[in-house]
Amino acid sequence: MAFVSCGSQCAANDEAVFPGHTWDTQSPAEAGLDAKRLEAFAKAVGGDGVVVRNGRMIKTWGRPDRRSDWASSCKPVISTLLLFAVEEGKLDSADTKVAPFVRARWPNRDLSAKDREMTFRQLANMTSGYARSEPPGSHWAYNDYAIKLYAELMTEVLGTSLNDAALKRLAPLDLEDGDLFGSRGGAGLNTSPRDFARIGWLWLNHCRWRELPLLNAKLFEQHCRPGVPQDLPRSRQAGDDYLKLGTHGGGSDQEFPGQGVYGLNWWFNAVMPSGERLLPHLPDDAYCTIGHVGKEVMVIVPSWKLVVAARGDWGGLRLDKTKLLREAVADGASNNQPGTPAPATPTSRAKSRGNLGKIAKWSSLEISLIGPDSRGAESPNPFDILVDVHFTSPGGRVVAVPAFYEGDGNGGLNGNLWRVRFSADELGAWSFRTQSSNRQLDGVFGAFEVVPAPSDAPDFYRWGRLEAIGTPENRLRYLKFRDGPHWLKAGCDDPENFLGKYRHYDTLSKRKAAVDYLAARGINSLYVMSHNIDGDDKDVWPWLGNTAAEAKANSAGSVRFDIAKLREWRELFEHMQRRGVVVYLVLEDDSAWKRYDHGRYFRELVARFGDLPALLFNLGEEHNENYSLSAGLALAQQLAEIDPYDHPRGIHNVNSPNDDYIDAAQIDFTSIQTGMPGKHQSLADAMQHNQIAIDWQRRCDSRRQRRLVVNFDEGRPEQQRAAWWAAYLAGGVWETHVLPPYDQPMSARERTWNELGGARAFMESLPFWLMEPHNELVRAGRAVCLARPGAAYALYLPEGGRVTVALAGDHSYQVDWWNPANPQDGVFGHTATVNGGAIELTAPGPGDWAVRIRKPPENR
């Protein structure tokens, strides 16, 4: 295994020049660089940048004094502080175990048994295994959860903030523009290009500044080299951020290949497993820092005595635009005369998509990409060619979205088309660039402008993404559309194989008609299972194959998907969005085939459907039949890392409050099943859902976690409205599971859908998201109560009759009754006015009733 270190070709130059408080300057020609080609390089990268050669400033562009965040380029600076800690005796070596420092920083937390042997070097090499399933040192994963842990622990080791620690140790550099660290909660580098270049010049000189060695040169050279073995396997399964630290910026396994080329957070121009060097346009001794896949970069080339620091667009992880930099060096060295920039090639022109025009906020932008001619069922497998598209917002935020192979673009397997779908959440000018191992698909770029959604757009496309917004502080337990209202689920659970072969739902037109029927009755969510091979009905899967056996063969290894089928699913899901019905995508049936490639499955679904504004993911029906809870949570984390939109996630059949489930940050809602099918029919069985929802909320509060959405997916007794009323008036939400047979038209259960839609209408007439369970306010009679005391109250009387309820204050309230058995017209009746205090209410008729009590309109 051959490693190249930054010390192998770059012995410190005794005559090196170092800047004072300002940099000495020199023209490109004096520094042996071609001025025109250097200018072409600067324009191609854009943004703000500097070029330093032989210790002098040769070129600047943009605002070289502008302080801003350098994203992942900060990481080698943290590792430089690690080396200071070793030299100062604060750590024995980079291989010191981190566990004692974890306990010192967080006395009530500790590493898991799997992670007890973790070292600082492994954190810096992205091999720590934190928030992944594998043990430390065994796998590679570009892991920003581990970097967050690394930054926190270095603060503990150094006994001060990263900024103070860096300023103290790097004081001889005489920075011009102030602090170094300051973004990302103090763990991000927030400096100017010209000050960052000083750190690069320090590294190029083996941590010597003038005559002063800031770090032992031998120590630096031992560590400034690739540290990840070329044959180290890639991490395959997510774990849990069990220390609850969050991320430094990205996921725990981003799509960056570091084997053979990464060490102590530097990227080296060494040989990748593919046999290619990482930076094809630079000398072998080059190394660099990289943020946002080539946006914030510093390149150090010892053999050229060159440092370049710039925030712009360097052309992806392999810094393709350094070709222009190489030409500037080569032409300058050959004749020391200004050269002529190379003309744009047809390939580079084809890579530009120009400006795509105006796109409405929250709408679906689809970009087609031309790749190699392919045959979807043959080798080489086009589904193995992965493409990620990096969308950059007006504020500089980068969203990495997976693309997908689309065959001929019309459902056929054979073709050369890849596509990406994107939904923008910010107004203004956006840009995009593709990244792929395939040269035809890599480096495609363009721009577009996001404008406000039109007023006549369907609700979901005006309201924006449906999101989990709960925090321990706000205690909110409902999902909310980003630019719209809180969402109260009134869902349909059956048939679970809605995408399958039941005769009433076996065509796209029949499925659309069923969606229309439900939407007209107030049902706003539909359970859609995407894989049930070996499960109950065995007729739904996304993989290529006319039989389950063929689909299984295409679900792992060299994975292939059924393009025509997924296009049809997409058309259905878009129809659901337009009709106001959330796609509740359930990824696996109970006891179904599980030896498929989960990561590729998740990626394909996110690529094809993730841009939809109203989408929920459930990891699986009765997930416990196939997986332990820890395995299920790990899969949820893996999905979370793939999904750039962070759609809400849950797992079915965790039916009572569970601390591990509540503490898992990747989980947003419950998916509760109560009782056995058709077995529980009493009123007491129905009313138990009130206490179940309350118990979940209390457990979340007691653990100081955000409240989960308490969602019932298979509540029993089936089709008994008292059950969902009990859940709603405890702050829960409901999806109705019906009794078989399931191959019936939706109209066969007309009463159920009308009554459930009516309960939703009742709840939405109140500020339900601000109301809490307050059954203690019912002083006499049988009722459950959801209230915002002093403002609004909702009561459900399962047997009608008479109740006494305590109303806060001495002001008046308006009382309106609702008949749950006859909700079709959604009209409140039997209106009365009462004053605060203990009031007695009598239902207007027999059976169950609901009542809304609010301040009069003039006092709200």
Structure overview:
- The protein folds into four domains: about 35-335, Beta-lactamase; about 350-455, Immunoglobulin-like, CATH 2.60.40; about 465-765, TIM Barrel (Alpha-Beta Barrel), CATH 3.20.20.80; about 770-860, Jelly Rolls.
- About 25% of the residues lie in helices and about 25% in strands.
- It has an eight-stranded parallel β-barrel with strand order 24-25-26-27-28-29-30-31, surrounded by four helices.
- A hairpin with a 2-residue loop joins strand 1 and strand 2.
- Helix 2 runs parallel beside helix 5.
- Residues about 1-15 and about 335-350 have low confidence and may be disordered.
Q: In which range does the helix fraction lie?
A: 10-25%
| CATH fold-level label of the largest domain | Beta-lactamase
Indicate the structural class.
alpha+beta
Architecture (CATH level 2) name of the largest domain: 3-Layer(aba) Sandwich
Neighbour order of strands in the largest sheet: 24-25-26-27-28-29-30-31
Please, what is the oligomeric state? Answer: single chain
Rg (C-alpha, Å): 30 Å
Note the total helix count.
Answer: 20
Number of domains: 4
**Basic shape:** globular
CATH superfamily of the largest domain: DD-peptidase/beta-lactamase superfamily
Biggest β-sheet description: 8 strands, parallel, barrel
Mean pLDDT: 92
